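Entry for the shared binder. Reason: the reviewer on the internal report wants the predicted structure included alongside the sequence.
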Amino acid sequence: MLVMPGFHAERCVRYRYSYSECSRCADACPHEAIRLFDAGIEVLSERCRHCGLCAVACQTEALSQSGVSADHLLKMAGKSKRMTIACAPSELAATVVVPCLGALHPVVLAELSRQDIAVELAGTQHCAECAHAGKGIDMISANLAAHAMLCSAVAPESQPWAAITLLTGEPEASGEHEKLDASRRSLFQRIVGHGMDVVSGKFEVAPAPLKAIRAAAPFLPDRKVILNSLYAAAGENAITVARHDALPAEDWQVVSGCTYCEACVRVCPTGALQLLENNTAWRLAVLNDRCVACDVCAEVCQPKVLCQMNAEDIIINKQKGRLLTAVAKQRCARCDRVFVKEGGEEICQICSGDDNDFASIFG
């Protein structure tokens, strides 16, 4: 029985940051069944056709669809080293029936391949007539491309992972997945564009409003756990693949201009950004084994100094935590507060602000 995807608000980046412009789930939905608002999303039951494409597009797994998780698929495979997965609209018999083949995440498929389970996908010959065809056919193509990259990243001396076979026909990309990729690119363009306005002086840099960030306990999505385990044998030798919108991985860097407001740390839903602070220093570090490329940290960063390290490639296996930026703490010469700021300032931002306010009032 097909059911609507479940929604966990505290995992949604739109819930974590009220001004987030993330629309991955809505962009993936072929039925316009996702309503976006500043505290998350709403799945419209009267429009939802239970395809699960929104769930596979969500990097934080705020949306979940039953029947397409790695645990469920491995359980259904049992001891067999071959399984057939068919989509429900095709009405074909198979080991597992899923709402849409596009709802099979490449990381989940890679885990099946790693465990030497040969997967056959049935039903793609019906994609053109399917109600989910608006987005489903290109999600299948994109996810299979990402799966191929993950499998090709295995060390040459290792045994090749099991293959995935399309029983009949091969879906051809219609360009809709380019729109999904573009949703993340356009998000970065808005972020970078705002950053240029800040650098040029068009806008003043101000920290994100505290009320715009909602606190919640950090969590690690299941697909990220699987991705971390795929290449455990490689140790800390970096494994890189071409950047792909579906892969929950990102490499961040901080360029000059950080205001040390800590908004990125507070908003990160997975705890990938860590504040390492003591009596003498303020340090910001990133844990790549927790980052899922949701990009909300880049959105909340008002000076727009948090950005991708490499525009072409990403590291997909677990690495040691990496320091992004660090600055020594200073003590204010006027009020004796400890503060963090570059440039060897003698007074803190509060005292400096008081001076500016006094000057604006009394001249």
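Summary line for the report: The chain is about 30% helix and 20% strand.
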